[in-house]
Amino acid sequence: MTCVNDGVHARLRSLRLTAAPLVVVPVLSFGLVGCSGAVAVEPAPSGYAPSCAQVYTGLPDEIAGLQRRPTTAQGAAAWTGVPTGSQDGREVTVVLRCGVAQLSAIDTAGGCQAVEGDGVTVDWIPVDDGDGRTTWTTYGREPAVALEMPADGNVTLAVPQAVAKAVSLVEQTAVCS
Predict the structure, then answer these.
(1) Pairing state between β 120-128 and 62-63
(2) Which residues of the chain have pLDDT under 50?
(3) If you ran DSSP here, which 8-state letter would residue 4 be given?
(4) From 53, 103, 120, 160, which residue has the greatest number of CB atoms within 10 Å?
(5) How confident is the model over 101-114, as pLDDT tens digits?
């Protein structure tokens, strides 16, 4: 079942940053109440941060053939579908969680990748989850943003590129060296 409430996405995008947080919560809740197709996402510790609201409203509705779906957590977004160019026609899910903790120095030892998209560059630390999925976490941004997605060439680089402009709204405090 595809469950997209374009009205909710449009209303959220039209909210100004000066809008009271109490206005946003009921709109989000209303959009999820009648939608059994919401993607279950564990909330990030700082998913309520104002910069996460900016990220959320700047995210695209479609990435590499995947359509945006509602989630159960504030500061989170999800896209599902069959990726453009998929050879096996398998449906995948990509989850973005804003407000996750920064990675430790040990976690960043695997390498940092500067990914450009929409005229901005965002530094990411990709980590193989060992289960056919990978998690890319921003480097040098507080709060951090994590992308959980299949370790599949059809979406792996397309997703960080597609969300770069929205993620760049979180203040950058350090860069990959």
Answers:
(1) unpaired
(2) 1-35
(3) -
(4) 160
(5) 988 766 666 688 99
